[in-house]
Specification:
heterodimer; A: 12 helices; B: mainly alpha
Chain lengths: ~325, ~110
């Protein structure tokens, strides 16, 4: 059994390194995207072997579901930009002058430098050396597991990861939510929503699949959110699953996206951060410290924050997939 | 019995690495995408086998999420390659005589 486990780990490691190398070295972008999807799968297996099922769950939702679709659509957008440049004609609706196309052109206009090889090699060697040194001098420690276990009874939940994320180190989670929000603001500041490249897919298979899958995905998302209090799961994973369901809906009718209502959309996107901040400030006022909870209120507050965070993350992921501010919303 | 599960998981991992040949060689986009989709199916099986072998029930949830969401990439792919395009459109492969700056990933 142990020999098999070691063998499994070695094969998995070889696969991850090999796929990552081929993905980075690939000159065919489509092949690189497919290799990246495979990389996500292998990485999820690696997280499982590292005994981190929570991260494996997040990697499964993000890696299998969202990044693949995001990269494929981005590749198609890139192709239409390139075709437009080659032929001198416009194949797409005229882009926003400040839009993502302008940024791409700015990135591509200077020809790639050949002299960067030596600095890049030096940089890689220095960083690699530092990493090896850091790993060499790892201090012997039992980690924080005993400390977390000793305080589980006041955390309000039964799953140690959720206790750390939403109670003991809530500050980190709060900042992570803020980063997700800032990423969306960055994407929105680049321009308005542009049509998603999509060809007609005739036949009943695509709509039928989506009609079956989207409700199941929503139920699974809610289940994963609920499981977070006692088992691997939680807001990020649930948000990613619900976001993937939203992306499926977007892909189902890319030409007939409903006009996003400005104010409710913004409220939903900021709900996680705002609620977290309100609860945290209340803790400060009530004397539990910033982002601290009274022991008796820990469970309901954690659930409340997780629900809001799930909603925000799901909406943000769909908005990032659609890319750009909603059309007709320039205030 | 867990020995058998682990051996089966190892075998399936080997089939993924073998299937990478199809992703690397192609030749068509469909071949590559289909290989990745089959990896997803194999990954679900590996996760289920691991959950039995390591006795970790949480891995079933990971497998569920994988089985559910692997289709998203496939739907995106179908949307980009829905109807067969005319044979002369160079959509999958850029023409080899394109000048340098337009192919930023091919500078070596």
């Amino acid at each position: 059994m142990n020999v098999l486990l070691v063998l499994f780990d070695l094969v998995l490691l070889a696969g991850i390194v090999g796929v990552a190398w081929r993905c980075l070295a690939s000159t065919d972008l489509f092949r690189a995207v497919v290799l990246f999807i495979t990389f996500g799968l292998l990485l999820a297996l690696a997280w499982v072997r590292l005994e981190a099922p929570d991260i494996a769950l997040a990697e499964a939702a993000i890696g299998a579901g969202i990044t693949g679709a995001l990269l494929l659509v981005t590749l198609e957008r890139l192709r239409s930009i390139m075709a437009e440049r080659r032929s001198g004609r416009r194949h797409t609706p005229p882009p926003d002058p400040t839009g993502p196309h302008a940024l791409l052109r700015a990135l591509h206009d200077p020809p790639p430098e050949r002299r960067t090889f030596l600095p890049a090699l030096t940089f890689a060697l220095v960083v690699g050396g530092l990493l090896v040194t850091a790993l060499w001098h790892q201090p012997q420690s039992v980690g924080l597991e005993p400390v977390v276990d000793a305080h589980m009874d006041i955390s309000g939940v039964d799953h140690p990861i959720t206790a750390v994320l939403l109670n003991f180190r809530a500050y980190d989670t709060f900042l992570e939510l803020a980063i997700v929000l800032i990423a969306l603001l960055g994407a929105w500041s680049l321009g308005r929503h542009d049509l998603i490249p999509a060809r007609p897919a005739p036949g009943p298979i695509l709509p039928g699949t989506l009609r079956l899958l989207v409700p199941v995905a929503v139920v699974t998302g809610v289940y994963v959110l609920w499981a977070g209090s006692h088992a691997p799961g939680g807001a990020f994973q649930a948000g990613a699953i619900l976001g993937a369901a939203g992306i499926l809906l977007v892909l189902a009718r890319p030409r007939q996206l409903p006009m996003a209502p400005g104010t409710p959309l913004r409220l939903g996107i900021t709900a996680g951060v705002v609620l977290f901040l309100l609860v945290g400030t209340y803790g400060l006022v009530a004397g539990h410290g910033f982002l601290g909870y009274a022991d008796a209120w820990a469970y309901p507050l954690i659930i409340l924050i997780e629900v809001a965070a799930t909603l925000s993350i799901a909406l943000t992921l769909v908005a990032l997939f659609v890319a750009g501010r909603p059309a007709g919303d320039d205030t | 019995m867990s020995l058998f599960y682990m051996a089966a998981a190892l075998f399936l991992l080997g089939t993924i690495l073998l299937g990478l040949v199809r992703v690397l060689r192609g030749p068509g986009s469909g071949d590559r995408m289909l290989a990745a989709q089959l990896f997803g199916t194999t990954g679900v099986t590996i996760l289920l086998l691991l959950s039995l072998a390591l006795e970790e029930s949480a891995l079933v949830d990971v497998a569920l999420v994988f089985a559910l969401l692997a289709v998203v990439a496939a739907v995106a792919f179908v949307r980009q390659h829905g109807l067969p395009e005319p044979p002369d459109t160079p959509i999958h492969r850029q023409p080899p005589d394109t000048p340098g700056p337009e192919r930023p990933h091919d500078d070596r």
